[in-house]
Amino acid sequence: MLQRTLFRASRQVARPVQRIQPAFAPITRATPAIRWYSDAAPAEAKKDAEAADAPNDTAAQLKEQLEKKDKEVTELKDKYLRSIADYRNLQERTKRDVQSNKDFALQRFSRDLIESVDNLERAINTVDPAKLTSENPDLVTLHDGLKMTNSILISTLKKHGLERFDPSAESQKFNPNIHEAVFQMPMPDKEDGVCFHTQQKGFMLNGRILRAAKVGVVNNA
Predict the structure, then answer these.
(1) Is the residue at 134 inside a domain?
(2) What is the 3-state secondary structure (H, E, C) of 144-206?
(3) Which PANTHER family has this protein been placed in (predicted)?
């Protein structure tokens, strides 16, 4: 019983005292509200705008650099192709020059040699066919030897590009590039401009005229 009484007393002591507020609160002067303005928002907006423009600037720079590189590649490719073309042209010219020098290295020697060929042919033609009989066996043997030598010499020269041609034997038309007209003569049975007589045979070295043939040409005009 005593304990219960003490417990109640302790609870009343521990209970907080209620303050009685007056019916009318005193009127106090209101403190005006203060507004603070900050520059943080515009700065952040500016940063956001710059951040948004940054990718565009980077893309423009990359595009400009790419176009510049493409232009450089095009120029280098053009130079490369031109260099290849120049090199191939140089190869072709060098090849032609070497072949030309090879083909005409014996040109001077050939000019001197054809005089000997002419003399050999003249020696053969000076022999009177009427004397080539059994009564003159030595002359027949000599004549046959000269003809054989001439034939072998002409064949050998032909292997090395030196060819002899007879315009009258082939009834060639007169060509001022390979023929030299010595005289003209009317011949009704032949066509105008045909080489009917060969005074001196011509020679060609690898397709190039070395000595023009001296001929007589038909002129019926």
Answers:
(1) yes
(2) HHHHHHHHHHHHHHHHCCEEEECCCCCCCECCCCCEEEEEEECCCCCCCCEEEEEEECEEEEC
(3) GRPE PROTEIN, GRPE PROTEIN HOMOLOG, MITOCHONDRIAL
How many domains are contained in the chain? 1
How many residues does this entry show for the chain? 221
Does the residue 169 lie in any domain?
A: yes
Taking the C-alpha atoms of residue 200 and residue 213, their distance in angstroms, rounded to an integer, is 6
Q: For residue 35, which phi and psi values (nearest 5 degrees)?
A: -105, 130
Tokens representing 4?
Answer: 């219960």
Contact 114, 210 (CB under 8 A): yes
Pairing of strands 208-211, 213-218: unpaired
| Each residue's pLDDT tens digit, 164-214 | 999 988 889 999 999 999 999 999 888 899 999 999 999 999 888 999 999
Measured CA to CA in angstroms, residue 142 lies from 5, 132, 212 at distances of: 181, 10, 30
- Contacts for 211 with CB less than 8 Å, ≥ 6 apart: 111, 114, 202, 203
Q: What is the mean pLDDT of the chain?
A: 81
> Which residues are 205's β-sheet partners?
162, 208
Residues 75-102 pLDDT 10s: 999 999 999 999 999 999 999 888 878 7
**Residue 114 CB burial class (10 angstroms; 0-12, 13-18, ≥19):** buried
State the Cα–Cα distance between residues 148 and 153, nearest whole angstrom.
8
CATH number of the domain encompassing residue 196: 2.30.22.10
